[in-house]
């Protein structure tokens, strides 16, 4: 029984690609038609369909056409397994990046939609790691970020300030953080907007009238919703 073959347009339709892609693979000698009819029509069978599927899969993994050709012509099963393991590791890394990005998007949604709420909700205990300890008389700036060699991703994360009588600690949230912990629950909070060191000192003094040391202040991505050079900080009060 002879196999019923497909034309190039039919094959392209099955894989949802254009005919030029298939012709390009043929030019690179990655894929050859099962037969070419007298009138020049190129025909493809099941074997070519499997070959095309394999090529498209490897392209999806990011392999160049030259690498695919080398793998098809000279590669062993061991070579193929090594490539798959390498790509799997990169996929896992990218998945983690996207999950982190998704979490940041969720936080942005919460921040932008609930900025007028009177309570600050901590759904689970927040463990903090220390980035740097600063004298209360000095402000934390971009040079300090460079000194502790943090990535630009920090600018989209929450920064926690644990303020003591003569110094303050700059912290970030980490699962294994041991420097300070904020217990879960609902907190009353004071929203302050500041643009200078004098304003910082004034607002801290005002907050201390209602709360003792250590004072917990949070600078989150709501900073991007303020105008000019001013930043917004939430100062946590007592738990409800």
What would you say about this model in short?
Strand 6 (159-163) and strand 7 (167-173) form a beta hairpin.
Account of the protein in words:
By secondary structure, the protein is an alpha+beta fold. The protein contains seven helices and eleven strands. The protein has helices at 8-15, 19-27, 46-60, 65-74, 77-113, 142-147, 197-208, and strands at residues 6-7, 35-36, 42-44, 119-122, 126-135, 159-163, 167-173, 180-182, 185-194, 215-219, 231-239. An eight-stranded antiparallel β-sheet has the order 4-9-11-10-6-7-5-8. The longest helix has 37 residues, at 77-113. Residues 5-74 form the HTH merR-type domain. GO terms for molecular function: DNA binding; DNA-binding transcription factor activity.
